[in-house]
């Protein structure tokens, strides 16, 4: 009898934790959420079905003080942090705030590549879960967000896409992402994080 009662209590607690995770919401990060020296490092690799590696390397972002203002140092130079944390009022953005399990929206991005090619990405997005995800940098609570749709460009290219992002509110960014685009598979994973 004691074992059955114990098992019921454990099941109740697990169910309560699961419900709390589903009710968890996360807002867009604010300027004051960042600190000088905070640093994220990802490894990435993109390969075709034929095994041709199209992209591979390391990407680093770090918060720096630039003339008394916080900035995010990227491979392309510093970006004022106030630009990054501007409130997103577009319901078609990559992250539709606040994030919550079960939330759905349509992502619409129009873009121009470095060579001048224009294109668009249109995907249906859904927050599937909020749970512990382990990457090389450690284990973090993260929203798993799935995006499915198409990508096309001005050169006549069009492909079906499926992206999955694991967004960790504590780190204010994704800790892992995968992308399937036609015959191309891309993955990025956080390998280092420091609070500064």
Topology:
Elements: H1 2-23, E1 25-26, E2 39-48, E3 53-66, E4 69-74, E5 77-80, H2 81-84, E6 99-100, E7 104-112, E8 118-135, E9 138-153, E10 158-168, E11 173-181, E12 184-194
Antiparallel strand pairs: 1-6, 2-3, 2-12, 3-4, 4-5, 7-8, 8-9, 9-10, 10-11, 11-12
Summed over residues and divided by their number, the pLDDT gives a mean of 89
What's the tally of helices?
Answer: 2
Unreliable segments of 5+ consecutive residues: 1-21
Strand content: over 45%
Please tell me what the overall shape is.
Answer: globular
Structural class: mainly beta
Oligomer: single chain
Strands in their spatial order, largest beta sheet:
5-4-3-2-12-11-10-9-8-7
Q: What is the terminal-to-terminal distance?
A: 52 Å
- The H/E string reads HEEEEEHEEEEEEE
- Please provide the count of β strands: 12
Helical fraction: 10-25%
Major beta-sheet overview: 10 strands, antiparallel
Global Rg: 19 Å
- What's the number of structural domains? 1
